[in-house]
Amino acid sequence: MTTNRLEAFSDGVLAIVITVMVLELKVPEGVTFESLKPLFPKFLSYLFSFIYVGIYWNNHHHLFQATEKTNGNILLSNLHLLFWLSLIPFTTGWLGESNFSKNPTTLYCFILLMSAVSFLLLEKSVIRFIGKETKIATALGKYKKEKISLLLYSFSFLLSFFLPAISIIIVYACAILWIIPDKRIEKIMHQNNDI
Question: For the chain, how many structural domains are there in total?
Fold first, then answer.
């Protein structure tokens, strides 16, 4: 099977995720900029969740740009990733509504942790199917960036039970680690094209 349907379905799901998130931002009743002030926590949670969804979309695109075929395990791994990403709008809304309170922060951190785990599993499913001697396997190497992220997400999840504000700072710092597009796959693809 080619990856076309998998990519199209994933793009559609992620577009819906972003749409649902933005619908949580309700228009204020007032007409002054002061009336926007209560929306700031909601906007902040939306902004970073939008960045996260964009990061996953970008890395998903790069992964499947270098993958021509797929199998059932990859399809299931992809659905696993989409499941966790589809929960981001709910946790984003709760986080913003609660002004970043402890329980919503804990759930948000857990969803981000599970999203990272599921993306790593997707990468491993792809490599297991196409082989360890391929361009993608070479590009991803030992999953250093992914492992650092998993440590940060795990730490932020555990910390969220005690210091939710610090926990949020950690997950946003992790987003900064990924906001610059991951060049590992592009780099190896260009090297092989130059040969």
Answer: 1
Q: Which domain holds residue 153?
A: 4-194
Q: Which two tokens stand for residue 3?
A: 């990856």
Q: Residue 37's Cα: distance from chain center in Å?
A: 28
C-alpha dist (Å) from residue 64 to 85, 101, 125, 148: 18, 37, 12, 22
Indicate the DSSP class of residue 184.
H
Using an 8 Å Cβ cutoff, are 96 and 24 in contact?
A: yes
Weakly modelled stretches of the chain, pLDDT under 50: 194-195
Q: 111-123 pLDDT, tens per residue?
A: 999 999 999 999 9
Angle at 26 between CA 23 and CA 27, to 5 degrees: 125
Flag whether the pTM goes above 0.85. yes
